Amino acid sequence: MALIEIQHLTKVFGTGADRVTALEDVSLRVEDGDIFGIIGMSGAGKSTLLRCLSMLEKPTSGQIVLDGSDLAAMNGAQLRAERRKMGVVFQGYNLLMQKTVAENAAFPLKLEKGFDKAAVAARVDELLELVGLADKAGAYPAQLSGGQKQRVAIARALATKPEILLCDEPTSALDPLTTKAMLALLADINRKLGVTILIITHELSVVRRICGRVAVICDGRVAETGTVSQVFENPRSEVTRLLLSEKEA
Amino acid sequence: MGAFFAEYGSILWAGTLETLYMTLVSAFFAYVLGLPMGVVLTITKPGSIAPAPRFNAVFGWVVNILRSLPFIILMFFIIPFTRALVGTSIGATAALVPLTLSAAPFIARMVEQSLEEIDHGVLEAAQCMGATKWQIVTRVLLVESVPSLLRGLSISLITILGYTAITGSVGAGGLGNIAFRYGYQRYQTTVMYATVVLLILLVCIIQILFDRLARRADKRNR
Q1: Which sequence ranges form a coiled-coil region, renumbered to this chain (chain B) (predicted)?
Q2: pLDDT range class, residue A75, cuts 50, 70, 90
Q3: A194-227 b/e (C-beta count within 10 Å ≥ 16 → b)
Q4: Which pTM value belongs to this model?
C-alpha cells in the first residue's frame, strides 16, 4: 500500500518575470515500510520537494496524499494534527540550543495539551536509548558532535511515533564514518519500528547503502524512478548516467 | 569626607533609590509594551511564521516615529496624558509615564534584534512538529533568545537610567535632580561629582550583573 502518494505536484515561486518553476508535475508513490531515496544535483528541486512534503511550502498545484488524506488541501489545526504523523530530519539539525538533549526529544510531545509528564519522560528515555544517546540526556547540543546532534534530531523526529520520516540531506554535514553509522541507525529504525523513510540526498552512496527504491530528480521533474538496482544498473536518463559517472570520477 | 557623608549621605541614598525605582519600574512597563511589539515586528516579517508584510511595514514606521521623538520633547508633549494617568505631572511616579513610553519602542527594536538571531530552521522544525504560532513564540523564539534578551535588557536599563537624569532636571527626583539642584543651582560641585560617581557605579553594576546572567543562561558555550 502506498503510504504517500504525490500526484502532479507543481511548485512555482514568484510571479511575472521572476517566475521560477521549482517542481513540475512530480508524481511519486512511496510504499509503506520502504526506504525511499530522492537523488539529484544541487538545484534540481529536491529540497523544494521535501519542503512541500513537510508542508513548509504550499504546493502551487497537485496533491500530497498521506494515508488517504490530501495534505495540500489542509490548513491550521487539521494540518498540525497530520504533521504529527511525519517526522522531519534536517541537514542543519535545527535543535533548540538552549535545551538539553532530553528536552529537545520531549519538545514535540509537550506540544500536546495535557500531556502526561511521566509518559513523556519514559518515551524520551526510550528514544534516547534507540539512537544511542542515553548517556547524553542532560547534555546541551553545543557539547555534542555533528553525528550526535543528528541522532538527537532523529530521536525528536520519532517522538510522536510518525508513520514516515522525511530526511533532508541527513548526512551531508557528516564525515564518511559518521555517515555510515547514521545510515545504519536509519536502517535499524526502519526495521525495528517499521517507519517509512524518505531520504533526500545528492550522494549516490547514501542511496546505494540503504534505499530500496529511488527517484532521480532533474530540473524539477522526475527523470526516472524504480528500485535502486534497476535504476543504477540500467540508467535510462542522462542525469542518472551523469550522477553515476561523477561517482567514478 | 565624613562630614560630607553626614550632611549629604541620606540625600544621595534616597536619590539613588529613587533613580533605581524610576529605572526598574519604567523598564518593567516598557517591556510589557515593548516585548510583544518586538515579537510582532519579528513574526510578521515576510517569510517568518505569521507573515503580514504590509502591516509589518506600517508598524515598523510607527515604531520608528515613536523612537525619533527626543525624550525631553516627549516628556513635555504627553504631560496631559501623564496627568490623566497618574494624577500629577511632577515627581518620580509621573516620570514613569514618559520613561515607559519612550523606552517601549526602543525595547521593541532590541527584542526584534534578539529574536532575529535565531536560526529560521529551528522555527521550521517546530512548525513541522505541529507547533502553533503561539507555541513557537513562547517555546522557541523567547526561549532560544534568552541570553540575547538579557544583554538587551542591560542596554535598555542603562538607557532608561540616563533618561531618569533628564526627568530629574524637571523635578522628578532621583540622582539627576540632586545633581541639578545642588550642582547647577547652588554650585555645590562636590555633590554633583558624588551623583556622577553613583551613576557610574549603577551602570557598571547593571552591566556586570547582566553580562554574568547572560553568560550563565547561555547553553551554547559550555
Answers
A1: none
A2: confident
A3: ebbbbbbbbbbebbebbbbbbbbbbebbbbbbee
A4: 0.90
